[in-house]
Amino acid sequence: MTAGRYANKRKMSRLERKNTLIAYSFLAPNFLGFLIFTLVPVVFSVVLSLLDWGGGQNAEWVGLGNFSFIFDEFSFQDSNLGIALKNTVFYTAMTVPLTIVCALGLAMILNRGVKGANIFRAALFFPYVASLVAICVCWNFLLMKDGIVNQILGAFGIVMDKSWTSSRDLAIWAIIIVSTWKNAGYYMVMYLAGLQGVPAELYEAATMDGANAWQKFRKVTLPMLTPTTFFCSIMMVISCFKIYDVVAIMTQGGPGRSTKMLVTYIFELSFGGEGIATSAQYGVASAVAMVLLVIVLLVTFIQFRGEKKWVNYM
Amino acid sequence: MKKIVSLVLALMMLATMGAAMGEGKTTLTVACWDLATTPYYAAIENGYEAANSNVDIVWVDLASQDYNIKASTMLSGKDTTDLYCVKELSDMQNWANEGHIIALDDYVAQKAYDLSKYAGMDACYVSVADGKQYALPFRADFWVLFYNKTLFDAAGIDYPTNDMTWDEYADLAVELKGDGVYGTHYHTWLSAAVNWAVCDGVNTLADGDYDDLAYFYELLQGLEDAGACMTYDELKASGLHYSGAFAQGNIAMLPMGYWYASTMCGYIKDGTASFDWGMTAVPHLDGVAAGSSFGSPTGIAVSAYSANQEAACDFAAWMCSEDGAKAIAATGTRPAYVSEEVAAVMASAEFMPTDETSLAALLPTAIALEWPIGEGVNEIKTAVNEEHTLIMTREISIEEGIANMEERAADYVK
Q: Which of A260, B5, B230, B365 could form a disulfide with B291 if both were Cys (CB 3.0 to 4.6 A apart)?
């Protein structure tokens, strides 16, 4: 103990000081970037949520006034925050499981060693790297009133009389489908890596015990993939709560408020929306951002608490 | 070694200072949008620089759809750009409240500047908070009805006139409908669909009473059902823009802002569109004077963070003067400053229609403000726009939508 304290107090030699400085200088670009572009804005936004600020010289301290404004007459049917919250939670609750199922399914098929697996892998990964605007515009066409999707549904006797994005009930599903389609390829790659890490002995042992394919999947594959699933679900929940881009391109939050999400609402409060001038209510917008932050923190915390119960690290 | 370096640096500084002083030119930077596709910026720049050889105008081009956001952010960050074009009236109010732009009253008084030539549009730039003039209008667009003469000729139907009611217009649209031809076209904006209700000069969209919109929604949905125009659903999903739609040549009529005239001139010039076209006043309701329209001005404001406020004020004043107006009018755009001379220049712009009806349409009898200014208007605008999308996608009935608008606006109506 005393030796350690002595070591700490000992003056650094010239060489040591030089080395330390060099080390810091290597860290500096990344750390400075983080400081200026991430940490400062985050702290600023926390402070902003307690101010009435329109972007100019006058900022007024309003305490929790912004929060009482957004929670005023809170309801999931009528208040903007309530609707945005409801839509975001619904979107997340649907997109995350759907993406996981698709990603896992695709990974298992490709892991079987299908002919041309490389081509399929590249094709399935493509949506993730393709331009989002192009993807969304294409999907808008596919989901049009007389688009391919509605025509296929029509062949099965399901008659659709309007575009998906023009319907209050279906617009959010259009967003969910596009998000799932876009992200499934990315998470599929994660699952592929996970699948390749499952030891073959386990399957051998299961076969010896007379397990059928379903039992092997349930008792070997799924438990062995829980770390991957855990990682994917955390990343996906966080990104789903922050959904903005797909909505902005495909529906602009409409029709009405049926696809208004938390981030769309934040954007609208600070920068305005379609046909709406800048509202510049940065304080109120930051308050909504704080609500979003708390929700994401809470959900992630719960996920980590549950980790011990269902995640197996072998 | 150090001495030499500092000496060289000092010399370089002196040299640059000398170069700057030698030129003796003031550079004014002006934030604007759509620089490449809007011909009047160059016209203004050339006109002003010809009259003031010691000033250099540099435009700062911002993306049109992000202009309000970008300009507001630049002002919040105390950017040194000298002047800002004002796209939205409510932004100007925000900027004035935040101290981003300077009041021009002293300048106007000192130069005995005449504000009476703007047909009231200057009043839009008076701050609600302190009653001072924070910007001057250089453009004042109002809505007209564009029509495709070639399609009218082919159908053997008389051209529309400057005195036409909305019912007559709707009948005409249905009559013109043909194989692959649409009688009319509505862009997805709220303004294109129902803003007409404010043309009487009495109603506004922020008064909390939206019964007057029902007639226009019914008319539009009737036209959609009759196949006389493309549906809102179709336009929204395909993202079809009105400018390209009309230029294709299969749409007979298009109610749109006057700014589209200069776009059409450009299309005729570069061959994108190849048909005869004309303009009339927008249709009117029974009991509202023919030639009544609505519109919004576009203005110019001087930044509080400009280092050359005096020169910036001079430029803003010139841009909005009769000389500036003539430069703008020559490109087919309607300036805010109106005089007979300016109107003559407007009519003589290259590729503009020259028939009497079109010329008469250049002089509306009354222009109501598209949206009034004031506190709570932004919130009302959001609510009304959201309900508009529900009505137009037919998710709710017109009555239901109007009831929702009234209920949601009631919280903000002052």
A: B365
Cα of A301 to nearest chain B Cα, Å:
35
Phi, psi at residue B76, to the nearest 5°? -60, -35
Between the alpha carbon of residue B359 and those of residues B160, B201, B349, the distances in Å are: 14, 23, 12
Same domain, B256 and B405: yes
Instruction: Kindly state whether residues B149 and B224 are assigned to the same domain.
Output: yes
The CATH code belonging to domain A74-310 is 1.10.3720.10
Rounded to whole angstroms, how far apart are CA atoms B207 and A28?
A: 56
Domain total of chain B = 2
Integer Cα distance of A230 and A303 in angstroms: 8
Nearest to B390 among A144, A145, A255 (CB): A255
Residue range A116-151, pLDDT digits in tens? 888 888 888 899 999 999 999 999 999 998 899 999
Q: Do B265 and B387 fall within a single domain?
A: yes
As a whole number of angstroms, the distance between CA B280 and CA B253 comes to: 10
Segment A287-292 mean pLDDT: 93
Tell me how many residue pairs between chain A and chain B have CB atoms under 8 A apart.
112
Residues B107 and B68 in one domain: yes
Is B400 part of the contact surface with chain A (CB cutoff 8 Å)? no
Note if the bond before A255 is cis, omega within 30 degrees. Answer: yes
A134 to chain B, minimum CA–CA distance in Å? Answer: 12
Nearest CA in chain B to A265: B382
Name the residue with tokens 């995640």. Answer: A311
Cβ–Cβ under 8 Å, residues A84 and A268: no
- What is the block-wise mean pLDDT of chain B (414 residues), using blocks of 10 residues? 65 55 78 87 92 92 85 90 90 87 89 78 84 91 92 92 93 92 93 91 88 94 94 89 90 92 88 91 90 90 93 92 90 84 83 86 83 82 91 94 93 81
Q: Which residue of A has its CA nearest to B97?
A: A56
The reply to whether B72 touches chain A by the CB within 8 Å rule is: yes
pTM: 0.83
